[in-house]
Amino acid sequence: MGLASLPQFVVYSELQSHWASWAWTAFCCLVWPHVAYLMARRSKDPLHAELRNFVVDSMMAGSWVPLMHFNLLPSVVLLTVANADKINSGVRGLWLRSLPGMVSALLIVGLATGFAFQPQTSLMVMLACLPILVIHTLAVSLSTYRLVRKLQRQNQRFEELSQRDGLTGLFNRRHWQDRMEQLLLRHQEGGEPATLALLDVDRFKDINDLHGHGAGDDVLRAIAALLAQDSMAQNSPVGRLGGDEFAIALPHSMGQAQAAAERLRAAVEAFEFDNVPGLRCSVSIGLAPPPDDGTLGLREWLEAADRALYRAKHAGRNRVAGQDLEPEADNV
Question: Does the model's pTM come out above 0.70?
Answer without folding.
Answer: no
